[in-house]
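One thing: mind reviewing this one?
=====
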Amino acid sequence: RDLAADGIAILYVSHRLDEILHLCDVVTVFKDGERVLYLERAAMTRSALVRGIVGGELAEAGEGLGHGHEAGEVVLEVDRLRRAPKVKEVSFRLRAGEVLGLAGLVGAGRTELARLIFGVDAPEGGRMQLAGRPYRPTAPFDAVERGVVLVPEERRSSGLVLDESVRFNLNLPHLRPVRAVPGLPFVSDRKSGARARSVMERLRIKAEGVDTPVRQLSGGNQQKVVIGKWLRLETKVLILDEPSRGVDVGARTEIHHIIRELAERGAAVLVISSDNEELPGLCDRVLVMTEGRVSGELRGDAITKEGILHLSYGHTA
């Protein structure tokens, strides 16, 4: 604002709506390479920007998704899990068809907990059960074989092979069904292409084709590829670490609807997010971590930004 006051014309590019509303005098929204909205400051509201970005009256990310269904049986049980110094005696249950949020401040131990569940790190104590049986994965591939998958926080470095195609990334976790000949390590272009196109259509992944390098996709479409590669597995537990980080509000809304759809199909979903506006409306329950421990739980109408912040800054129970 100081530079603008000095007479300098500024072009500010961002998908952070609060910044746009605070800083800009006029705003132009681009979607699929075309200008879809132009507003001057007097007409700039958050809801107007959201409508322009998502192309209609869709609820903003996480709002009004209508998840009043009953959760199913306990799929994952975590009992007094610990690994110093970040995870200290964490316990919870996650049910089929449930979206469980995991909130807390940076350094609270959320990602470290996900790494223990996914087999990246080994716990120093406590136990886990998966579908009623003892569960202690020795490595991520072991977790995947048992139906536990992770969409990591850093999709570009940990979730994707950027220089490879959409087809390659979507088929990477399960090459056996797309082999040209059973028992031989050769992939059928027809089978792998058909599966990739099916996932692209289901998740509305925008790319020129299945052979487009993932590096060329937008952040939102890259995130859909990371989620899409797990869809054909027998997924019991889906862990998403910061699922909407670095994507615009339109892609965020679509990703949230994908999460709810997966839960409605019976998956048990754990969503880790540092954005306290993301979890209300998306989650059936929210656990808040503070200094490596669960400091509280929120349900239903109690899942609010204020409620999450209160537990995040409060003393551990």
Notes: The chain is about 30% helix and 25% strand. Residues 287 and 297 are 5 Å apart (CA to CA). The mean pLDDT is 87. Residues 249-264 form the longest helix (16 residues).
